Amino acid sequence: MKLKIAFLQLLPEKTLQKQFRKGKTACEQAKEMGADIVLFPEMWSDGYYLPQDEAELNTLAIGKDSDFIAGFRELAAKLELAIGITFLEKNSPKPLNSMILFDRQGKEVLHYSKVHICAFDLEKVLSPGEDFYTAGLDTGKGIVKVGAMICFDREFPESARILMLKGAELILASNACPMEINRLSALRTRAYENMAAIATCNYPEGMPDCNGHSTLFDGVPWLPDEPGVRDMCVFEAPGEEGIYTAVLDLDMLREHRKNDVMGDKFRQPDKYGILTGKGDQV
User: Fold this and answer.
1) 3-state secondary structure of 35
2) Residue 139: predicted pLDDT
3) Which helix (H) or strand (E) holds 171?
4) How many domains are contained in the chain?
5) DSSP tally for the chain: helices H, then strands E
6) Angle CA(163)–CA(168)–CA(174) in degrees, nearest 5?
């Protein structure tokens, strides 16, 4: 099974209504390009705008039952296209940085809120999410087990590790920061150590503190019948705004997971007590 993933590497507009219209048009174009799944950059509903004033922030936050989210649910069903839409989610005591994944029937299959918020910066006005989740996504070509991370989550090995342990084959990662060699290396490592594909969608150049370079790491560092190693980065976008697509060979990934030694095969979790606070701290 091969899946085409569309990265909506778009500059934000100024209002929720304009964000919806631009996102809708991009989804329609991605469908015409043959996409099975589309992914937005982080917090698309307001273009990752995070005012530090509580009243202003709360006026921007929207519920999952809002017209904005409902519009993408309906669009997913109309286009028969899986859509990963991101938004500033209304919540008490503070809003959440969230993603909802709709399948090609418009059914919600995944609702994730960023666990590792950037509390050292603008995201101190947000609440963190509670857990990591996976779900089976019916693509029309077959079922793929998906999970989600958002931006800073990728810097913590535990994020992708938990998703792998819960069965994730494909991790959808929305982003809003400069994707430079170190952050890209972190994604490469998460894909390698978990034998998982990671699709990351970033804002393009022109968005403050962003530079494009959305990527797909397919999680397969070598093939049994080929000498040497291969580059797991099968796609990297340029910096410019655009709708970019890349193909994930899921059959190849599954064969690698079946035969290689990474992931969960040789872990020794009984030795990892310090990670949960249950072991020696020195």
Assistant:
1) coil
2) 93
3) strand 170-174
4) 1
5) 7, 12
6) 70
Write out pLDDT tens, residues 45-72: 999 999 999 999 999 999 999 999 999 9
Q: Quote the CA–CA distance of 198 and 233 in Å, as a whole number.
A: 9
pLDDT for residue 279: 52
131 belongs to a structural domain: yes
pTM, two decimal places: 0.96
Residue numbers of the domain that contains 122: 2-276
CA–CA distance, 28 with 79 (Å, rounded to integer): 7
pLDDT value for 120:
95
- CB-hemisphere CA count at 13 Å for 11? 8
Rounded Cα–Cα distance for residues 33 and 165 (Å): 33
pLDDT band at 224; cut points 50, 70, 90: confident
CATH no. for residue 165? Answer: 3.60.110.10
Q: Which two tokens stand for residue 224?
A: 């049994």
Chain position carrying tokens 């193909």? 247
More confident residue, 175 or 269: 175
Categorize the per-residue pLDDT at 277 as very low, low, confident or very high, splitting at 50, 70 and 90. Answer: confident
Three-state DSSP class for 104?
coil
Two structure tokens written together for 64: 């999952």
Is 199 in contact with 101 (CB distance < 8 Å)?
Answer: no
Q: Examine residue 282 and state whether it is found in any structural domain, yes or no.
A: no
Residue 167 lies in a domain: yes
User: Which residue in the block uniquely carries the two structure tokens 């084959």?
Assistant: 169
Q: At what angle do helices 157-165 and 181-194 cross, to 10 degrees?
A: 30
CB < 8 Å & 24+ apart, contacts of 112-121: 112/147, 112/148, 112/150, 113/89, 114/150, 114/151, 114/152, 114/153, 115/153, 115/159, 116/152, 116/153, 116/155, 116/156, 116/159, 117/152, 118/151, 118/152
281 part of a folded domain: no
